[in-house]
Task: structure prediction
Amino acid sequence: MADKLKIKITVADRVYPLTVNPEQEEGLRKAAKKIEEMIKQFEQSYAVRDKQDVLAMCALQLAAQVEQKGIDKDNDKNNVATRLTVLSDLLDKHLS
Result:
């Protein structure tokens, strides 16, 4: 079992010390970077009063992206299943 890493992640001008598995470090750093970029974008685009509002907007946008990916994945699965059924029917028809 790999040793845990102690890292510090900064989000919205606050430092969060974390103890993580080495394989999680890159993902956490990328996520923090993405959040920081979103914060800057929201602060430039909207008149926000405090970081809490910006963080709530970031959380909503990230959650919506996750949900949309799930919806898209389900739609893709359904499309693939439909196409496989059509192909199977065509094969059955030609082989009969």
Q: What stands out?
A: Strands lie at 5-11, 14-20. Residues 51-95 form the longest helix (45 residues). The mean pLDDT is 93.
